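anyone seen this seq b4? input:
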Amino acid sequence: MQREACLSPKPIRAARENIMRTLAIDPTTSGFGFVVLEGSERLVDWGLGRLEKPENALFQKRIEKLLDRVAPQVLVLEDMHESRRGKRAIAWARLAQMCAAKRGIRVERVGRREVSEHFATSGKTRWEVGLAISRFFPELAPSLPKKRRIWESEDRRMTIFTAASFALTFLRRTAKE
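predicted toks r here
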């Protein structure tokens, strides 16, 4: 079952005040996937934000609504400097960063190479990383699409797992510091 982002306007309350809440977003050409973690082991929320019209104003409105509802201490995004992402995804990542900065939310970037190093024992493909994440967070298992064949397009639900990989990689980096 897929869930759309920002369905509930009710803010998500933290289980404990001293636990860092992390929101990770993976923007795409048609929306975004997101996960919300408290600490590194508690998955609070996840979902997809689908935009019928891929407009910056609509994306910004959805991200602002999500930031207000989730109230994270940290927003984690992909480091687009080493990425081959499209112009829209790059623009939307910058827009999400700007929305977070306006609210005083710290923004962190994670590169694909760092994600690959963190999940090196899990496999090389995004699907194998998604499988490892679904084992760590069993509640995500129903959202993991079947492994795609080389000629098939990637299922948009994979953005949830990509966002989770960014969050977990960032939290591992933070734990080492």
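The longest strand covers residues 42-50. Residues 21-144+151-167 form a domain with the Nucleotidyltransferase; domain 5 fold (CATH 3.30.420.10). kinda curious what u guys think
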